[in-house]
Amino acid sequence: MRLTTLTAAAALALVSISTSLSGQRPDDQINPRSMALLQQGEAARAAGQLDRAAGLIETALAVDPRNRQAFNVLAEIARARGLPGQSIRLYREALALEPTDLRALRGQGEALVAKGAMVKAQENLAKIRKLCGNDCTDATALAAAISKGPPATATAQQSVTPAQAPAATPAKP
């Protein structure tokens, strides 16, 4: 009786695993509708229509969430809008699909530099160099961004001296 239960459990586990693996598509079989939406989004981005481009590319991801190129383009749009944190998250999604995506590694590294996370950016540079060596354009571009450093953030706070402070008016009874 025990052996039958164990055998049935093992068979069920084997069927579950094989079913889940057969349902997954490889990276190179992206839904054609998703690719068409991505191309439309890239055209809108090139025309300077970032809101329209983001909408089209988000739709491309809804059609096929395995569209790694769409994550990369959406991350680049986020960087263009000055949102490096969102960009880092989107590049992370692309890297979850393909950990050796040089475009995502470089873009995430540049976004990390913009956030001031230089150590993590160096880690991305090391991964890129491991994949393609020192002479590839992605390694060169990220190394240049790291050497330039994070952008200087100007704080527009002015100190208010007591003479400039507005006079308090007493409350009327």
TrEMBL record:
Q: Write out the transmembrane intervals.
A: none
Positions of the region Disordered? 148-173
Where would one find the signal peptide in this protein?
1-23
Highest taxon in the source lineage: Bacteria
Q: What stretches of residues are TPR repeats?
A: 34-67
The record's section on InterPro entries has:
TPR-like_helical_dom_sf, TPR_rpt
Name the residue ranges with Low complexity bias.
150-173
What keywords are annotated for this sequence in UniProt? Signal, TPR repeat
Q: Which Pfam families match?
A: TPR_7
Q: What is this protein called?
A: Tetratricopeptide repeat protein
Taxonomic source organism = Sphingomonas molluscorum
